[in-house]
């Protein structure tokens, strides 16, 4: 009975210790890895150990220590290692707002690239502190002193400026309002068309760059344009007279067209019919223009002015002898291999003597034909071609038939 009473307190104490150990394990805060950063500020107001360290306003750590060092203050920061901070980050003290005290913010937020190393040291050049209210008051006081009786207004210049402005603006409130309103509308219009404006400026830039690349050509063009302008200036009297005459002629032409509108319309329609016929008969016109000059020339040569008759003679063989005629017939009727050797000898003899050769005999010797095709210009060595042509351009057909054919 006594043994049982002694065991129950021991068992209760053991259970209490075990429960305390379990609760300690469950609720003991886990220590995640952290990084430390040392930042040097020119002054620290409202920052103390325990103040937040934030990124984009979100707390990621806390201030560990604030230690004065001469003209600067060393602030040691600690933040969770899972938060990446860019290697070029700055430390900025953010002034208090309605809902928060001052804190240290690391900027900018990380996007990519190397990160800030553990134990990094940020010098004063990479830190910033907010402007204090005392600094603002001090600046306003310095401005008042600079504009006061001992400063810019020592001779009354500032008072004169204010007085002159008051007199100039007195009674001009509506005009000033309209001016500012118009300026606002103009700026709004420019803002609405900023894409077009920037596009125009960009195009002008490209145009200017093109002009710069073509500086030599532009200078040459300007020089020629100046020469033309000088020529026109020298001939301005004749040019003015020509313009006056042209104005008179245009007035006469206008009156003529107005008075003869119906007749001109009929003539244009008739001209259209004529040109249509010419287009449809183009082939026939080409043939006529090719043959007509030769026919007229032959007619002129055949005319005998003494008797008033056309004298002709039968010359079937032309300038060729009977042997050449017979050999030519053989070349046209039998293969070249079967043409008698005498014909080949005759052709070589005539060629050596520079006597006329028929095309058949020339073909027997392997020479090109000598007869010109219809419309071909025949040139004589040492003499210019027809209509100013030359022997170097025998293929240019400058006859009317060749012009109508539209080719060379």
Summarize the structure.
This protein is α/β, with parallel strands linked by helices and 408 residues long. Helix content is 53%, strand content 13%.
Tell me the layout of helices and strands.
Layout: H1 2-27, E1 34-41, E2 52-55, E3 58-69, E4 72-80, E5 90-94, E6 103-107, E7 120-122, E8 127-128, H2 133-147, H3 157-169, H4 173-192, H5 194-213, H6 215-234, H7 236-259, H8 261-280, H9 282-302, E9 303-304, E10 309-310, H10 322-333, H11 341-352, H12 359-364, H13 400-405
Parallel strand pairs: 1-7, 2-6, 5-8
Antiparallel strand pairs: 1-4, 2-3, 3-4, 5-6, 9-10
Based on the model shown, name its key terms:
408 residues; alpha/beta; eight-stranded mixed sheet; two-stranded antiparallel sheet; 10 strands; elongated
Number of strands: 10
Distance between the termini: 144 Å
Parts with pLDDT < 50 across at least 5 consecutive residues:
373-394
Percent helix: 40-55%
If helices are DSSP runs of H or I spanning 4 or more residues, what is the number of helices? 13
Judged by helices, strands and strand pairing, the structural class is: alpha/beta
Strand order of the largest sheet: 7-1-4-3-2-6-5-8
Order of helices and strands: HEEEEEEEEHHHHHHHHEEHHHH
